[in-house]
Amino acid sequence: MMKFKSKRFGIRFGFGKRTNNKGTKQDQQQKGFGNNNNNGSSSNYEIKWELRPGGMLVQKRQESIGEDLISIRVSTFAHFHDLSIEATSTFGELKMVLALLTGLEPKQQRLLFKGKEREDDEYLHMVGVGEKDKVLLLEDPAFKEKKLLNNISTSCPTIIV
């Protein structure tokens, strides 16, 4: 058995003041409708268009400077670093920045976000890293073990008599 929903046509639900479809002259100019000349002066707002590779004509986006920077907290067990980086950066680029701060080579670093180790070619924004998110930095256990073995072997030199 099928159930049908009834639809009402011609009724609009709006909030605030009801106006006619055209609105005021000032509203039309802000939206880009009608004559943009107002006693000889023109509106500052102009729509710019771009042609996409598929042939679609779309309105060009407003490019704002610094909007794509996100601040993240990278923490180790003992320390944490607050840094700002572009949202479209990769985890490999983040490792290079952290190499300058921590002294660990990018090969020695392991970055964890949301409980998973992230690869160097993964993008921050695609994984979901946002403003004020926390990324965990761990030293690779293989490099840590190698460093300990080198410290043990160099700290106790063999004495031949």
Describe this structure in words.
With 161 residues, the protein is α+β, with helices and mostly antiparallel strands. The chain has helices at residues 25-31, 91-102, 124-127, 141-155, and strands spanning 49-51, 57-59, 69-75, 80-86, 109-113, 116-117, 134-139. 24% of the residues lie in helices and 20% in strands. The radius of gyration is 29 Å and the shape is elongated. It contains 4 helices and 7 strands. The chain has a domain at 69-148: Roll (Ubiquitin-like (UB roll)). It has a 5-stranded mixed beta sheet. A two-stranded antiparallel ribbon has the order 1-2.
What secondary-structure arrangement, pairings included, does this model have?
Layout: H1 25-31, E1 49-51, E2 57-59, E3 69-75, E4 80-86, H2 91-102, E5 109-113, E6 116-117, H3 124-127, E7 134-139, H4 141-155
Parallel strand pairs: 3-7
Antiparallel strand pairs: 1-2, 3-4, 5-6, 5-7
Structure summarized in a few sentences:
It contains 4 helices and 7 strands, in the order αββββαββαβα.
Round the Cα radius of gyration to an integer and report it. Answer: 29 Å
Shape: elongated
Give the structural class: alpha+beta
Mean pLDDT, to the nearest integer, reads 76
What's the oligomerization state?
Answer: single chain
CATH class descriptor of the domain at 69-148: Alpha Beta
* Termini gap: 100 Å
- Percent helix: 10-25%
Determine the number of helices (DSSP H or I, runs of at least 4 residues).
4
Order of helices and strands: HEEEEHEEHEH
Strand content: 15-25%
Specify the biggest β-sheet: 5 strands, mixed
CATH fold node name of the domain at 69-148:
Ubiquitin-like (UB roll)
Low-confidence stretches are 34-38
Tell me the number of strands. 7
What would CATH call the homologous superfamily of the domain at 69-148? Phosphatidylinositol 3-kinase Catalytic Subunit, Chain A, domain 1
What is the CATH architecture descriptor of the domain at 69-148?
A: Roll
User: Strands of the largest sheet, in order across it?
Assistant: 4-3-7-5-6
Pfam families: ubiquitin (PF00240)
Organism: Brassica carinata (Ethiopian mustard)
Domain Ubiquitin-like: 70-138
Biased composition (Polar residues): 21-33
